[in-house]
Specification:
heterodimer; A: 11 helices; about 70% helix; B: about 300 residues; about 0% strand
Chain lengths: ~300, ~300
């Protein structure tokens, strides 16, 4: 579009400048086409943002909009179907085996699961990025030591090392967050190290070192800011996997403990009642799927955007 | 071929170092963080009973002594006896290995249907099959797979009553767990086949093949797919660890008596010898598979041998 320089912006202005009709038609069509291309490129990302937004908002606003205690038992109204009204309370998704409101529990589960996963992500990133920066920047034996630890841990699938850490640390909110962080740091460390190896060769890094900047300053002011794009992409893609890992952990009983709800533990509790009330294990799974699908869309979108901008 | 031998030796050495570090890490983490005696003795054991158990397991000695005793035993292939069952831990784990492996291979076999779908997707991008396939792949990659297993149980075992919801005995029992487990690799296989083949189909030699007047499908399959399979195989091999981890979870869903069930029970009560044996078996398996995948890659694509 930039082959001819013109100050004209609209087709009308271009006509006034004496352009031929063909040229203008082509410009307009091209503009429209590129708009639709832009929309189709960003469509999934925006849909993903909306999906994640709905889940997050409902989790945050849950206690305000739905003032039902998710742990309140009501043994006279167990396993009620959808939209049952008991004691002037509407149970949108019915009640579970202890008469607790399933909708309130799913929203409480959203808060717990998303909170744990976010804390775990931040923790994993802090450990992984720090070690990755150090390994990539200092190289030699430091690099060797860090990378041997990375190799060692990656010999065990993330889910199994998470189970192992959870089994030794114990369960509960912060233990699960630590578990997720400890189980995933090697992924970030390996990636960041590879990026730092490239950035270390850049002229601006050499210039900063030549000007006498200390290592900490070079790392934090010249290298880290260039990793922000990569980190965003990885974090958003890894978040979805983390949600799935956390749900597996709490399904197996290695996550948050009863009576508190998480998505995974609700599926596990519901599994005992699939003959009576299959919805108990279906509903929380739908929440997980919407969240992860949304996060994956956002992650792919960010990768697309950042890759494009780095290519240019 | 000499460079390949060098690479193998280096990778095996790295693998041995990784396994050694793994064992050390597992040993110290378990013993520093958790006390197994409480779990074995139960709630109402007296202090004397606890001390007796501690002494009988050799857990009363200083940690570094325990570590060297442990290393000595491991070098003889002795991973200790299970605290819970009293039998040799490694034998227990290896005894459960075939069940888990057969489930894994059934799942891998089922996941192969992703390749033809990926091929059609890549040959006709934007077509109905491509759109549906990509949609399902995105959905499949976003599901908690153990939840999918429960859904399949609800549909095929509870509602339709055509398949058993779990257990063992015949190949019928493997259908639901196998199909479920295949979802750990199916969406990814489809996506990678598609993108890898799309990439290949833009190459010059494909244009040449088309210009020769070859039939379109023989261009796609013979000239395209063959060259597109390398990344698919590598990614699948690297993913095998995830599939085994998936099997561990799914064994709980379907009540399938494999390695995972044993491992999870052992982790709940802190049965260290079994946990250690399990981690070693998984770690060795994953490292071996990665090594094989690497070799395959180098043999299939001589260009990567330079680095």
């Amino acid at each position: 579009m930039s082959e001819t320089r013109t100050d004209a912006v609209t087709p009308v202005e271009e006509l006034a400048e004496g352009r031929t009709d063909d040229y203008i038609v082509e410009r307009v069509v091209r503009r429209r086409r590129s708009f639709s291309r832009v929309w189709s490129r960003h469509k999934l990302g925006i849909i993903g943002l909306v999906m994640v937004g709905i889940i997050v908002l409902s989790a945050l606003l849950g206690p305000v909009l739905l003032p039902i205690d998710p742990n309140a038992e009501d043994l006279t109204n167990r396993l009620m179907p959808l939209f049952t009204q008991t004691n002037h309370v509407l149970h949108v998704f019915g009640t579970d085996a202890l008469g607790r409101d399933v909708f309130a529990r799913v929203l409480a589960g959203s808060r717990a699961s998303l909170g744990v996963v976010l804390s775990g992500l931040v923790l994993g990133l802090v450990i992984g990025v720090t070690l990755g920066l150090i390994a990539g920047f200092y190289g030699r034996w430091v690099d060797n030591v860090v990378m041997r630890f990375v190799d060692t841990q990656l010999a065990i699938p993330v889910l199994i090392s998470a189970m192992f850490v959870a089994a030794t640390l114990g369960t509960g909110y912060w233990n699960t967050a630590v578990t997720l962080g400890v189980a995933t740091w090697p992924l970030y460390a390996r990636l960041i190290r590879a990026e730092v190896l490239k950035l270390r060769e850049e002229d601006y890094t050499a210039a900063a070192i030549a000007l006498g900047a200390r290592d900490g300053r070079v790392l934090l002011r010249h290298i880290l800011p260039n990793l922000v794009g990569t980190l965003f992409v990885v974090a958003s893609l890894e978040l979805g996997t983390l949600v799935l890992t956390e749900s597996s952990l709490s399904y197996l009983g290695f996550g948050l403990q009863p009576p508190n709800a998480t998505w995974g533990s609700m599926i596990g509790d519901g599994q005992g009642y699939i003959f009576v009330d299959p919805l108990l294990s279906i509903v929380p799974g739908v929440f997980i799927m919407v969240t992860v699908l949304g996060l994956n869309f956002v992650g792919d979108w960010l990768r697309d955007v950042f890759d494009r901008s780095s290519a240019e | 071929m000499r460079d390949i031998a060098g690479i193998v030796i280096r990778r095996v050495a790295y693998g041995v170092v990784a396994l050694f570090l793994l064992l050390t890490a597992v040993f110290f983490v378990t013993r520093v963080v958790r006390d197994p005696v409480a779990a074995i003795a139960g709630e109402d054991a007296t202090q004397a009973m606890r001390d007796a158990i501690r002494a009988s397991l050799g857990l009363d000695k200083p940690l570094w002594q325990q570590y060297f005793v442990f290393l000595g035993q491991v070098s003889h292939g002795d991973f200790g006896a299970s605290y819970r069952l009293g039998q040799p831990a490694m034998e227990l784990v290896l005894g459960r290995l075939p069940a888990t492996l057969s489930l894994t291979f059934v799942a891998l076999g089922i996941a192969l249907i992703a390749i033809p779908i990926g091929v059609i997707s890549a040959a006709r991008p934007g077509s109905v099959i491509d759109t549906i396939g990509r949609f399902l792949a995105a959905l499949g990659a976003s599901m908690p797979v153990f939840w999918l297993g429960i859904l399949l149980i609800i549909v095929f075992a509870v509602e339709l009553r055509v398949l058993p919801s779990g257990g063992t005995g015949s190949w019928v029992n493997l259908i639901l767990p196998g199909v479920t487990l295949s979802f750990y690799s199916l969406p990814l296989t489809m996506r990678i086949t598609r993108s890898s083949l799309l990439d290949v189909l833009h190459r010059d030699y494909i244009r040449t093949a088309r210009a020769k007047g070859l039939n379109e499908w023989s261009v796609v399959i013979k000239h395209g797919l063959r060259n597109a399979m390398i990344p698919v195989i590598t990614v699948l091999a690297v993913r095998l660890g995830t599939i085994i981890a998936g099997a561990v979870v799914l064994e709980q869903v379907f009540g399938y008596p494999g390695m995972g069930q044993l491992a999870i029970r052992s982790m709940r009560i802190g049965d260290f010898p079994v946990i250690q044996s399990f981690i070693v078996v998984i770690g060795t398996g994953v490292l071996l598979i990665n090594l094989l995948a690497d070799l395959l890659y180098q043999i299939a694509d001589p260009r990567v041998r330079v680095s």
